[in-house]
Design brief:
203 residues, mainly alpha, 48% helix, elongated
Length: 203
């Protein structure tokens, strides 16, 4: 069996093991990349790969260098942000992260048109949720059933629309971070029990 065939079968095997789509793509020389979205963490996927390569079925791939490339989705961003918010960790992480940035004199990015909403709190929130995505196994999955409607609310609130009400590009973590910062900074009496924010409009 050729190495490309084994790589294809190895990806299919890991897809069955992890329940996420896994592909192995040739890069150059002896290097291949293994790609998947959300699902297992890098360490977990490396363990699955090592276990598969220990058997005889994929012997032709044992001497290859396989780089792990895990992607993420807006769904996993929303799920981790909502879980962290419910647990009370989000507010603390944002406050501490923003205070640290100010103490260290970290300047706000100045590329493009200045965005008054892009505060230290905004960047601290982005960093916190990205780290949760990176370190959480299957970050796209709902931690508790009651999180699901809030995840849907956050995704909907961050969806950009034009003047005709048509949806624009897909939701990003940047858009959702703006929504959450606005909600968290609203006066306590103005914060709704559910996350219901007017959708953003295309700039």
């Amino acid at each position: 069996m050729s190495r490309p065939q084994q790589a294809f079968r190895l990806g299919r095997h890991l897809t069955e093991v992890t329940d996420v789509a896994v592909t192995l793509d040739y890069v150059t020389g002896a290097e291949w990349s293994m790609n998947w979205v959300d699902g297992p963490t890098d360490d977990e996927m490396r363990a699955h790969l090592d276990e598969a390569l220990a058997g005889y079925r994929f012997a032709e791939m044992r001497d290859r260098k396989v780089s792990l490339l895990r992607g993420d989705t807006s769904r996993s961003w929303a799920a981790r942000a909502i879980a962290s918010r419910r647990e009370g960790a989000l507010v603390t992480a944002v406050a501490e992260g923003a205070a640290s940035r100010r103490r260290l004199g970290v300047e706000l990015p100045r590329l493009g048109t200045p965005d008054p909403r892009a505060t230290h709190e905004y960047y601290a929130l982005l960093q916190h949720v990205r780290e949760l995505q990176r370190t959480t196994s299957y970050p796209e999955r709902t931690s508790l059933p009651e999180d699901e409607p809030l995840i849907e609310d956050l995704l909907a609130a961050a969806t950009r629309t034009d003047e005709h009400g048509r949806h624009g590009r897909s939701v990003s973590g940047y858009d959702m971070a703006h929504v959450l910062v606005a909600v968290e900074q609203a006066p306590a009496g103005d914060q709704p029990p559910r996350l219901t924010v007017v959708p953003a409009e295309e700039a």
